[in-house]
Amino acid sequence: MVIDVHCHVGLSARRVHSALPRFSFEPSGASGSPGFDSYLSPRMLNRASWFFIRPYLLMDPREPRGDALDARIEAVRDRHFAAATSVDRLVLLAFDEYYDDAGRPIGLADPGQRFGSDIYVSNTFVRAMCRARPDRYLFGGSIHPYRQGALEALAELAASGVTLIKWLPIHQNIRAEDARTIAFLRAAARLRVPMLIHYGGEMTLSRQHMEFEHPGPILQVLKRLRSDDEMPTVIIAHVATPSFPWQSPDGHQTLIDALLGEFADAPLFADISALAAFGRTTWGRRLARRRELHPKLLWGSDFPVPVMLRLFWRSLDRPARARIAALPSWIEQDLQLKRALGYDDRVFTQAANVLRIS
Question: Which fold, 3-354?
Fold first, then answer.
């Protein structure tokens, strides 16, 4: 079974729909910006990365947040999803808001605002999508460990059959050594809920806490949890690669050393999502050649990040580039590109075992 473990579904201004069965901790959707089941912040829509991506999505970068833009986003999303014909399941990701150190949610951020949320996607919204197509979608949740009742919310998600929990510490403000983070990870282990945690560079969302970019602290926490037999399955997104090849690869190398060394026989993995995106293609090529790492890697696309196929012109012959470029789905392009680069077949199929998907 081929599973995309890293697939985003955010909308610009989706209001709470009363007909959706709701999780108890999301009665009004977002806590920091009540009334929304999904939003993209004005700050995010003002970022250069959004202006870069929008033409690929066939959208006018000046179009305001709202129903018209969301209808366009959904149409493009559904087209890419439907055309990913070699993919059996897509893990759709919720995304919780920014919480400050005191556990207060800060909602959608305006341009120039230092701290806040660039994206929010409720667990309620994503679960509804997955229930509508259980043959196609898997539910990826997101709970900030600092929010009040985080452990109860995690238990509620686990009871609903959530596949994994997504965190992005440098954007959401999640310190690995915080007692609330550690308690959440212990609970995830007890409930057998895997974690998908982003370390390394980030280009789409605001980098509000770069002190959390390096995976070293989370690896130390996992070492302690493992010694207590309370380590959850953890997938580090993007193999903790930097955003550009000229940036320091120290965090990435630290993770590689852990995957092949101390955590070689532990449930620590990494996904290869976004490694066909601008800035990360060098890492995508290098990791394809590191076959000793492939048992520790899982495939993900990071949709809707576009595939920069032209940057792989030296790695593929012309017929292969033409064949992949003709595919109508970025998800399918990402899958076939990484197969062509030489990633072992297990990279694309072992997520079912890691996530315990039958």
Answer: TIM Barrel (3.20.20)
